[in-house]
Amino acid sequence: xxxxEAATVRFGQRAxxxxxxxxxxxxxxxxxxxxxxxxxxxLLRAVAGLQPLSGGRVLLGGADxxxxxxxxxxxxxxxxxxxxxxxRDVAGNVTFGLRMHGVPRAEQQRRLAELLDLVGLPGAxxxxxxxxxxxxxxxxxxxxxLAPRPRLLMLDEPLGQLDRTLRERLVVExxxxxxxxxxxxxxxxxxxxxxxxxxxxxxIMRDGVIAQSGTPREVWQRPASSFVARFLxxxxxxxxxxxxxxxxxxxxxxxxxxxxxxxxxxxxVRPAGVRLAGPGDGLDCEVVSRTFRGTHAAVRLRPAxxxxxxxxxRLTDAPEPGTRVxxxxxxxxxxLLPAPGPDAP
Length: 345
Ligand code: ADP
Ligand code: MG
Description:
The chain is α+β, with helices and mostly antiparallel strands. About 25% of the residues lie in helices and about 35% in strands. A hairpin with a 4-residue loop joins strand 16 and strand 17.
């Protein structure tokens, strides 16, 4: 459906998109995730034709889009801030694209009713945009983007303005809606929860470059680099060297998964893989804090050597701050990352 080949956008010396290769299959939901300023909006604007490329190509359905204007690309773009027309009512907003395409009035009305049902706002056509809540405006913006039946729907931080509860509900609704409609979606967000809940495939971006692409589960289980791991909120990362079945690290010898390559590496230990025992049993640590997280407690440790360490404990087992404990590691929760290079964080 969509192919980017070495797509590059430069602003002055700086590349906001740097030779990006990306494919989105028909009916796939792909979510690009990355920190603010990494080039997400630039990527969408380039696909929509709002931002000319400095190099490379965008293809839609196999056809090179170079020189094809925005309105001929058949893509829908929903911006971060909705950008509804404040002086028009809901119907005027939703049917905007249909009027632009010269769709007859009766057909416009039929599609309007259908779309308002779809986004859970039946009969809201006559309401003023200003009278809608943030979540309702978001749904209207979505209905407007879907109205011309774009072959590719692009969403820029679609739920960014909404509070967390509403966001978590809408993201589930959106996913099932796109599934029903068979819509191909390219969304971008800085919010990992949103990306992981929405996407069939997550693409993590850093400084205009794709750092990793995979299913939410693959990316979560096997982050490809220290950058990705830290961006996902994993902080238990240390450098070391694999010798045999374990790595020598500032936290001591840590078992590594079977078949791990020998030699220098960085190492991520998921908090669930840090087991706490009595003092003298494993790496000597002092408990700095414990935070209740609903289903478990996150225990922050200061080890005798090496950087701070976080352990995930059952609520009933979490030791008090100030306690001395021993920490051990389970190989299943250890992920080997490439050795830190000159530009690793
Ligand atoms: P994101 O959406 O991931 O936050 P953007 O795509 O908006 O990032 O921006 C990527 C980089 O390109 C940023 O450093 C931003 O300042 C820069 N940038 C974006 N648009 C322009 C522009 N029109 N002119 C100059 N620099 C820009
Ligand atoms: Mg942006």
